[in-house]
Amino acid sequence: MKQLEVRQTNDGSKTLYLADLDETYHSSHGAIQEAMHVFIEHGLKFMAPKTKELTIFEMGFGTGLNAFLTAQWAQKNHQEIRYIGIELHPVPEEIWKQMDYVQDEVEMYSKIMSTEWGHFNEIHPDFHLKKIEQDIHQLQTAEKVDLIYFDAFGPRAQSEMWELPVLTKMHELLNPGGVFVTYCAQGQMKRNLKSLGFSLESLPGPPGKREMTRAIKI
Hints:
Distance between the termini: 38 Å
Mean pLDDT: 93
Helix content: 25-40%
Order of helices and strands: EEEHEHEHHEEEHEHEE
CATH class: Alpha Beta
Number of helices: 6
Strand content: 25-35%
Number of domains: 1
CATH architecture: 3-Layer(aba) Sandwich
């Protein structure tokens, strides 16, 4: 893993800064605030009423924040969730142990971050997690999902993640009626999604961002 620096964001929660890309893993305005607003409020809560068992795919597992918040929500709301997270460069244990998302749920977060890669593991009865250590371009799976948390580094740092080859793969992963949600509102990214047959919504963004994007597979 390239050199990572732990930084505090404006809501008091921590994120990681990757100097090689000059990019943080989460918004400097607030890591937890951003994750809750984009992925939980406008992704998970939007899709959960539609199905008893929800399958989620996360592009960019990173520090496990989105998985942790989703696992918390699943436990509280008794929602069955199968969660797949892909990450080419797993965060080392000595780094993720410095994250402070967990408060009184250290055991759940530690289980998420230390569980074996490559197959589903029970984090709690309502939440099963499979972490995949792989480049998204090489991913081959027959599994379909209901919701995608697209949390890759931004277009300025990793433009190829927001272009048609990767977005086409996301479209193929989704069930009809499935949802793709991201903090990004870049014009070219939205045009790419439209060209694939997504129906787009521009929603108010988290603190520090004017807009975010939710796309539905027609």
